């Protein structure tokens, strides 16, 4: 069952990062009709921002396809434990790694913990991000820029640098960019700028990684019902969330996760430097 905007009441969470457990209605991260077929059997995935939203759904879908997962998150411990339980319910292991991805040392340690626990990394999903509403350029200072860029794009460099020495040919890196990288968003200026940087990072990293047999691709979601929304937006904006796309509704994490499954699997063996667009029908270039 899809959720329409009129089923989402006005709401806002003062806590940052916001919690999935406090959202009304709860995001849909699993589809019981999706049956795994072993596409990622015995693979190991490291997913940043895996406690909730798109990251949680990706973790669950990877588990359904036979992968073990390590999820990196900030401090949303209850949400992370719920994701861990969902992964384990499908018979796979899930390692929780809390910490701050703005620091390269932590990113390196997260990779090392994953290797120690599972012995390998086959899939790196760079998904964690922050966003803030910014009505004017004057409201964006150096501290804000440093926070957004360190979280959204610098961490991707750190994780790729730490993980790729452990990744064998056939492995995959998948970066979460956004529709805002293509269309821009005047109220999310710093966030949209980092998403454009992620697009360039994905395309620029893809070719050199092919020399190692690693495929690098991206996913650019449109408006998806995740903790991002009641965190960054006012109550009234949340109540109207998703109406702007042709489907006139927000997407659910479960509608995005299959794109990550495809890009991680051998089904996408001839794809590198590409981006998929689960965005509710918006036509973008590239």
Automatic annotation (TrEMBL):
Cross-referenced CDD domains: SDR_c1
Transmembrane domains' residue ranges: none
InterPro entries registered for this protein in UniProt: NAD(P)-bd_dom_sf, Sc_DH/Rdtase_CS, SDR_fam
Presence of keyword Oxidoreductase: yes
Domain of life: Bacteria
Disordered: annotated span: 1-37
UniProt keyword annotations, A-Z: Oxidoreductase
Record-given protein name: NAD(P)-dependent oxidoreductase
Organism field: Phormidium tenue NIES-30
